[in-house]
Amino acid sequence: MAKVLSNKSLADNIYFLKVSFKETINVKPGQFFNLKVCRDESYDPLLRRPLSVFDFDLDNNEVSFIYEIKGRGTRALSNYIKGDFLDIHGPLGNGFTVDFNNKKLILAGGGMGIAPLYFLAKYIGVNNDLTLCLGAANKGVLKPLVDYFANIVVELKLSTDDGSFGSQGTISCLLNNSSLGKEVEYDYLFGCGPKPMLEWLQSWMREEGISGEFSLEERMACGNGLCLSCSCKTTDGNKRLCKEGPVLPADEVIINGL
Ligand SMILES: Cc1cc2nc3c(=O)[nH]c(=O)nc-3n(C[C@H](O)[C@H](O)[C@H](O)COP(=O)(O)OP(=O)(O)OC[C@H]3O[C@@H](n4cnc5c(N)ncnc54)[C@H](O)[C@@H]3O)c2cc1C
Ligand code: FES
């Protein structure tokens, strides 16, 4: 069980949730928790909802999430208030590769795919040069997320579909219109976001010869490797995103099989 410290709206349908655990926990960037969002007296919705770790405070055993209300599960979650208790499983999944030193790294996030990149940026930003390319539909969604990155030393490149914040277009315009992959040699890319974005990134990375990994999303049920509902096709066979993922090598993922 975790105690809700804060569950506040950041923008239309976007929430920041912070919980604290009594027991000592250790969390790696890119891992996720499976949250039981129904109240004790009801079983609706029955299945837990997975959310990536946005931030982790080791000293206080506190974990933060940023989530968008998509349906009844996330709507139910938005009704929790400070002092409530949440039944949370985790941390789950493999997490990002974090053993980099003095490397030039790109972190590319689209929409709620930005959420797992904050903890990652804090973690690997200490020893590496980071360029963050973040995109979302509009300023209302992107600005509250980007504000968190202000206290980390990173190069930030922003885009919105409607041009209301940063460049107009998708993340592809940030990678194409800049020095990325041209004068600067990048070592590795971390990507998280909608399928079309990952599809574009995968072919761009192949063209530029940049390796990396993607954090992927699938509908999940058990969250512990038993039901196979989160299976994802890869060139190395099917992988369960809750166990072998959610982070997989970018080149192995068969995106149109997601
Ligand atoms: C490993 C992992 C980490 C995630 N991290 C985050 C996060 O940090 N922040 C965040 O906002 N969301 C995240 N998600 C997505 C989140 O789990 C879903 O949006 C949520 O479960 C939807 O539940 P719901 O009951 O509100 O919507 P539902 O009523 O179940 O569905 C509403 C709509 O959302 C779509 N949907 C539901 N689940 C998913 C999913 N897993 N992926 C894509 N579309 C889905 C459905 O197809 C439907 O169109 C993550 C998903 C995974 C698998
Ligand atoms: S959610 Fe059941 S195997 Fe992954």
Describe this entry's structure for a reader.
There is one protein chain. The protein is an alpha/beta fold and 258 residues long. It has 2 domains: 2-92, Translation factors (Elongation Factor Tu (Ef-tu), domain 3), CATH 2.40.30.10; 104-257, Nucleotide-binding domain of ferredoxin-NADP reductase (FNR) module (Rossmann fold, 3-Layer(aba) Sandwich). 19% of the residues lie in helices and 34% in strands. The chain has helices at residues 72-78, 115-124, 139-149, 171-176, 195-208, and strands at residues 2-11, 14-21, 32-36, 49-52, 55-57, 62-68, 85-92, 104-110, 129-136, 155-160, 167-168, 188-192, 211-215, 231-234, 237-240, 247-249. The strands form 3 sheets. It has a 7-stranded antiparallel beta sheet with strand order 4-3-7-1-2-6-5. Strands 11-10-9-8-12-13-16 form a 7-stranded mixed beta sheet, sandwiched between helices. A two-stranded antiparallel sheet has the order 14-15. The longest helix has 14 residues, at 195-208. It is globular, with a radius of gyration of 18 Å. Flavin-adenine dinucleotide (FAD) binds at residues 32, 45, 49-52, 65-68, 70-74, 112, 115, 217-220, 246.
